[in-house]
Structure formats: structure tokens, C-alpha cells
Prior knowledge:
- The protein is α/β, with parallel strands linked by helices.
- It contains 9 helices and 10 strands.
Amino acid sequence: MNAVPILLYHSVADHAARRDLPFTVTPATLAGHLRVLDERGATTLTVSDLAERFRLGAQVEPGTVVVTVDDAYADTAEVLAPALAAIGMTATVYVSTATIGSTVRDSRMISWAQVRELVDAGLEVGSHGHRHVPLDLLRGATVLAELTTSRALLQDWLGDDVSTFAYPYGFHTPAVEHLVAEAGFRSACAVKNALSHPGDDVYALARVTVTRDTGAEDLAALLDSLLQSPTLPLSTARRRVKTRVWRGAREALRLAHIDIPGAS
Length: 264
Ligand SMILES: [Zn+2]
């Protein structure tokens, strides 16, 4: 049962408001990450493709990685999508529809035209709710309105099915998961900071947050440790050690006596 890293990016920019900075990676850092994925021959799937394979019990090849982006800043279309397309990789981008075309703090959010550009570049667009509010705190009818409004707006604009959702702030409950299914979504991403796997809940898929200090060497260590032992970090997660996946990967490599470039 192979573990699958579902990476969670936010903005890709050199500068950001202080509050957004920890989750903003620089374009240079992103380029380093993508070089690692490319060099290791990683295969990228969209979240919908991965969830469908999990649902069908189909094989997920070792070396599979899923790239996701939450919030959809303009830089997702301007920096990340072209960089992925250049190496033939895909991603799933989760958009909060009420924020489209706006400016949040210091950052421009994606425009409607750019939402279409993502699909044209081979990326998947999913819903991140309408207003980016924590759904676990809202009444059921309000949650359902958030879900159906955002899905309908995206589907009308794209003329295609929008079948995956990501919980704003990662917050979800069984009741919210049920409403996500009721609204017509076939998968949903949580956060958890753990690796996903074929037994994962397709309505609360585990993701690993990429932060400003996640280096190319961290991603390399994670992928190399998975090649050494495809289930090792997964079993760590199952022991309910609060998984620091990045550190766990380095530890796994150290135990396997593999040199990690840059590690002391
Ligand atoms: Zn978000």
C-alpha cells in the first residue's frame, strides 16, 4: 500500500504580507522543488484521478505525487501553472469563488480568465468554498450554500464538472464531509500533514503543507525515503506521532544510512 504525498502549496511569490509569508514559497524554491520531481521521474495526478484510483482499488505507481494549490492567487496562473506545464506535470487548484478577481491583503487573487487558463494548461480546478470560511462553525444550510454556490459558479464558467473540494483552513467534521458529498463532489482534501494512501478517506485526503522553509532537499528526502520504503512514513503516521513528514523523511533516510545532501 504505497503512500502518496499530496503537496499543499499556497502563493508563489518573493514577497507577501507577514501573515501569508510562512505559506508563500519563492519562485526559486518552487523551481527547486519541480527540478526534484522532474529528476526523480515523479508522475503527477490530479486529486480527482487519485481519488478515483483509491475508490476503484486501482494501482498507484510508486513515485506518484499530487500537487495541490489552495486559495488561487494570481501567481498560481502566472508562475506555478506554466512551470508545471513546462515539465509536463499537473496540479489541482482550489479556488474560493468569492475571492476571484479581488485583492486579499497585499496579494492579487486569480481572475476568472486565469481560472480558465489553468484548465487550458492541463490543471484541474476544484472548489475551496465560496467565501473561504471555516465550514465546521456554520449551520448545515449555510455550508451547503457555500458548497453549491462555488461549484455552480465554477461549472458554469468552465462548462465542465467540478468534482473535488478542499476544506478552508482544513477544518471539517463528518457532517461537513456528508454535505460535500451531497453537493456533488466526489473527493475532498483536508490537511493533516501526513501522507495519503489507498485506504485514505476520499472525503478527507491527507496533505502535506509546503512552507517557505521547505527546501528542495526536504522534498528529495521525502521522495527518496518513499522509494526505499513506500510505507515507512505512512506507518509513522498511523502511530499517531504528530507527523512532521519532512522531518520523518530525513529520519527514515538516516536510518537507512543514505547520505542526504546538506544534512549535518
Ligand atoms: Zn485556503
